[in-house]
Design a protein that fits this description.
- By secondary structure, the protein is α+β, with helices and mostly antiparallel strands.
- Helices cover 57% and strands 13% of the residues.
- The chain contains 16 helices and 10 strands.
- The chain has a 6-stranded mixed β-barrel with strand order 2-3-8-5-7-6.
- The longest helix has 44 residues, at 19-62.
- The mean pLDDT is 80.
């Protein structure tokens, strides 16, 4: 920069911008959603790995009798291992191919939404082929490695012992726990059920980890939904809000007959109207940056803005502006920085005095006095009319429309794109992860019941009722499930706070982060 500006007067350079800022501007919108997608993706992978380990190892363990029969009819130990690995490879290959195909198809619209409004030039938004290749090869390799450990154990198992290995495992630790519980005053069905996880501690721990991650995901999504809905409802007011668009010939609508000031005066006189804010905008050049930016000018009750200030304060002087985090990040500014706006030979030095919770990545907000200095001929194009809590919204809308044929009032829509996007895909991830975790629990109960069918027959023969059998089976997973669930709740709360603190396109106030309560 020193070499480029050598010999110029001291005040000739009004602003500078590096290519790093341009790089941030290119990817800012996509990176805003990246923390959400990364966290849910990691949770999904962890749950999948745990369930794969649990299901695959359990399938090999529960197939001991089959292993013994194969060995008895002449299969070698290596052939037995190959049989089990092949049996597991077929459904794994089918599931992996289907998952990779669906994931690749879903990625396309997600990328298009994330990069909407950004000039990508010739850059491709397609998913890299190596990602699909990693998925196609990675999960089968994980399944085979997971299955290899119990398969090698079956490799060493004699045929006679494998055929007779049809009852529940008799580990010393499990028996010691069962004896201690049987000496307590608990009903026998409860004590037997509570001792079952200790017979297969590895399986129990995998199931607990899957439940904990499932509860973490549900807790995280609950918090995200609460935060995003609170954000979508912020600033709407109890009585509702009307957006009154001012028609123009360029927009294909009838232009207003009355002047700007008279329209605002009559809007304030409508019964039930609490506040009125006028807005107009113009394009301006930002010193030191290529292209143009939009400057929104506000007049009236701007303190009731729907977009809260999360840092600093609102502009209240001609040389003060506020912008959202995306604008500040893409243009390399922070609250307190200064720059200069240029428009048709006019110059307006401005200072960023506040950061909005959100905002257009190419727009800033300013006062009406700044409009007088930079674009004095710009007329109001929109009025934001907030109604009192007891106001009749339909009557107010009709009264506003009757003021001038060039006014077009519409109620403010519920929510926004960010709320819909985040709540939508977090809900999809939660349903998928919860379903996988539930299937893991189902698989654990099924394997435990199948392994213990001889024990269950003996217990029934000495007087245990079917209801007691059901109670014992439920207790065997309810206890670990309760502990895992209690561990998942604080993890979900921590993930919620961590995620909201690293979203690039929105800065949430503390009131929107505090969504968890004891119930």
């Amino acid at each position: 920069m020193d070499r480029v500006t050598a010999g110029l007067p001291a005040d000739a350079v009004t602003g500078t911008q590096t290519h790093f800022t341009l790089k941030r501007a290119f990817s800012a919108q996509a990176e805003g959603y990246l923390p959400f997608m990364t966290l849910f993706g990691v949770l999904g992978l962890l749950v999948s790995v745990l369930i794969v380990g649990n299901v695959v190892s359990g399938a090999v363990v529960s197939g001991h009798r089959h292993i013994g029969i194969l060995k008895a009819i002449g299969y070698t130990p290596n052939q037995v291992v190959a049989v089990h690995l092949t049996m597991l490879s077929v459904p794994t290959a089918l599931g992996t191919a289907l998952g990779t195909l669906v994931g690749t198809l879903i990625a396309q619209p997600v990328l298009r939404i994330a990069f909407s409004g950004i000039e990508t030039g010739t850059a491709s938004l397609d998913v890299s082929p190596w990602l699909s290749l990693v998925c196609l090869l990675g999960l089968p390799a994980l399944v085979l490695l997971t299955a290899l450990i119990p398969a090698l154990r079956a490799h060493r198992l004699p045929a006679a012992r494998a055929i007779s290995a049809d009852s529940a495992p008799g580990t010393r630790r499990g028996l010691r726990v069962q004896r201690r519980l049987s000496g307590s005053r608990l009903p026998r069905a409860l004590s037997l059920g509570m001792g079952q996880p200790f017979a297969r501690p590895g399986r129990a721990l995998l199931t607990m980890a899957a439940i904990a991650l499932g509860v973490t995901t549900v807790t995280l999504t609950t918090g995200l939904t609460g935060t995003m809905l609170a954000y979508g409802e912020s600033g709407k007011g109890e009585g509702g809000t009307l957006h009154v668009q001012v028609g123009s010939e360029a927009g294909g609508r009838t232009p207003p007959v009355l002047g700007d000031g008279e329209i605002e005066r009559r809007l304030r006189a409508v019964p039930g109207v609490a506040t009125v804010t006028a807005r107009t905008f113009t394009k301006a050049s930002l010193a030191g940056a290529g292209g143009t930016v939009f400057v929104d000018f506000y007049r009236g009750d701007r303190l009731d803005s729907a977009e809260p200030i999360v840092r600093g304060r609102r502009p209240n002087a001609p040389g003060e502006v506020a912008a959202g985090p995306a604008f500040l990040a893409q243009h390399g500014f922070a609250v307190g920085d200064r720059t200069t706006l240029h428009l048709e030979g006019r110059r307006l030095p401005v200072t960023f005095v506040g950061m909005l919770a959100q905002g257009n990545a190419q727009a800033m907000e300013a006062t009406w006095q700044a409009r007088d200095a930079l674009a004095p001929r710009a007329e109001a194009i929109e009025y934001v009319v907030r109604l009192a809590p007891a106001a009749d919204a339909q009557a107010a809308r009709a009264a506003v429309a009757a003021i001038d044929p060039g006014l077009h009032p519409e109620p403010k829509g519920a929510g926004n794109a960010a709320t819909t996007t985040v709540v939508g895909f977090s809900t999809v991830f939660t349903v998928l992860i919860s379903a996988v975790a539930a299937l893991g629990v189902f698989n654990t109960v099924l394997l435990n019941t199948r392994e213990r069918r001889r024990d269950l027959g003996m217990l029934k023969s000495i007087g245990m009722t079917p209801r007691q059998v059901v109670l014992m089976t439920v207790i065997s997973v309810a206890g670990p499930g309760l502990l895992a669930g209690l561990a998942g709740i604080p993890l979900g709360i921590a993930a919620h706070r961590l995620l909201l603190d690293h979203v690039g396109f929105i800065v949430f106030p503390e009131s929107m982060k505090d969504v968890y309560h004891l119930p």
